[in-house]
Amino acid sequence: MKHNLITSIILSSTIFSCSTISAQTTKQVQLSSIKLIEAGRYHANIFDQSAAEIVTFDKLTQQTFVVNAQSGKIDVLNSSNIDAPTLANSLDLKADIKQYLNEEAGAANSVDVYNGLLAVAIEAKNKTDKGWVAFYDTSDLRFVSAHYVGALPDMLTFTPNGKQLVVALEGEPSVGNYAVDPEGEIAILDVHWQNKQLSTKVTHLNFTDFNEGGSRHNELPKNILLNGYQASIAEDVEPEYIAINQDSSKAYVALQENNAIAVVDLVTKKIERIMSLGFKDHLIKGNEIDGDDKDKQARLKNEALLGMYQPDTIATVQINHIDYLLTANEGDDRSDWVTELSQNECEQGHFYYHLEDKHCADDLKLKNAFSSDIYSPKSISATLDLSNFKQGGSQQSTVKTIKFSHSLTAKHGDLDGDGKIDRLLTFGGRSFSIWDMSSSTMIFDSGSDFERITAKKYGKDFNQTHNKLKAEDRSAKKGPEPEALTTGVIEGRTYAFIGLERMGGIMVYDISEPSDAQFVQYLNSRDMSVNPKDNKQKNADGVKTYQVDAGDLGPEGFKFVSAKDSPSGTPILIVGNEVSGTTRFYRINTQVK
């Protein structure tokens, strides 16, 4: 069946500074294509504790390494038979850090492998302290070494040539009050791994030159989002994810909360530039969303909203000698970090004080902004003028349940300078995008595809969250919340695989022509007749165990393995599902329609 889904967007220069692109139509692939087929699955039997988060595959030993995040362990799966993967071993990271460095480790966050060398990102027990990269030999799982890299190493990846390991040091502030706010950094480790011996050299890149008064402050893009409480630019920036281009010369680093990408020259080891991603205008045809979580129906419509792309996972491909960057436009806010601020401190930071809950926050429901019991700033200067959204205003039809950023709407929502808010800034784009990095322009966005496709499949039961069964639970927030993303080349064509963290499932697109990406498949093993919330039992360690099986929930990490490296002889996709604690293997078959 052919899908005619309008996916791309036309953005005015007042809203999106990078480019204006023509509306296009996404067509389902009709000729040679691919199909994902469920193969085996490993179940950690741990529910909603990040037991299967990030995954990587070692072609030398045919093992899959799975981040069992909160436990501080890496599960090692024998993947020689992808139809029946089994747990072969576990790496006890916390014990190794304690034994070799006499330090207390926190959660594991990321893992990657190259030529038999496994690298793991580990945060400190106090996440604002410096964390580590630990190395293991995949042939015998021997601990090799560990190195301090900085606060909250959130993601790491080897360059395609294996000569460097690049680490995103997110540097999140302390929860509640920003008492400690480490600077975000990028670490580049030169790696020499030969004859079971490892040597490394670390280079740290920070953003202090971009601080106010710094030598590169004037290079900051106009629409970069900055709303950290009393934070410098270097503290505000929080590197989240890294993608390396094909020739290992550049790293693209997602600055999620800032809605930006840092481009790093890996040869000179310098930050080349910062690129703002702009905003997605949900008043444009093709960018409809369902922002109403109370109407018990799948109803997508245009709204007076600007989506902040704020990607989590990113990936890069090279087609016709051009680097293209793919972004999974999840969205994120800073509310967790400001809850304990006083009302005066809260409003000084351009956040708002929730009067009923008596805490500071940034994500605000439009209907609550009209309730003086919830929203009543002490000063007029701290109050958003939302008269355009009230009865009789030009945007009075805007969905009243939608959540938006108070601080960023205050900074960017008044488009004509009259003091009144014209657009509400919402979290995420509910889409994936493709950017031509030679010109820093968006050339494709999947628009409203994800919600349209899931609404067609699930009807009013769409926009579920991942750990309970409640229809439209995410409509007013970030919708399907695309987070996981990877790419793969199969028989000369390039494909993108995007995971929907909340609703669940995998979207597949053929991106061989990046400006005309084509929808291929959506599959989701989630059992909608089972409520995951029924998982209430705990084991002797207080860990929630899996009492019901509602399928794979919360896809968080993807790994594509080519046919030549795969144990099955076919391309495969490995998916870590953090809520269900399952690692799923998919066989990728080619097909002719």
From TrEMBL:
SUPFAM superfamilies with a match to the protein in the record: C-terminal (heme d1) domain of cytochrome cd1-nitrite reductase
PROSITE patterns assigned to the protein according to its UniProt record, in alphabetical order: PROKAR_LIPOPROTEIN (PS51257)
UniProt superkingdom: Bacteria
Residues covered by the Choice-of-anchor I domain: 50-588
Matches recorded under NCBIfam families: choice_anch_I
The protein's name: Choice-of-anchor I family protein
